[in-house]
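Form 7-S
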Amino acid sequence: MTPSNAKLNKNLTRERFYKGDLVAWWKNADEGRVKEIGIVLDSYPSNVYESASCDILISEKVVNVAVKYLFDQEH
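Output:
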C-alpha cells in the first residue's frame, strides 16, 4: 500500500462509527464551545440527499449528529 492510499484508508475508516462507540463533538453554547460525549446507538450511511449521521445517547436523550462533526473519544 502506498502512503497516499494508507492516508485515504485511514480517513475513510476514521469516519465510520458503530453501535457502542464512544464519540465526541463540539457544541456551541452560551458559554462558548462545549465538548459533548455520547455513545452511538445507530448509524445511517450517506445518500444523495443527506450526509452520514449517528443517533447518539447523551444525558438520557438521543440526538442525531452528522458524522462529519464526530471524532473518536477513545484515543
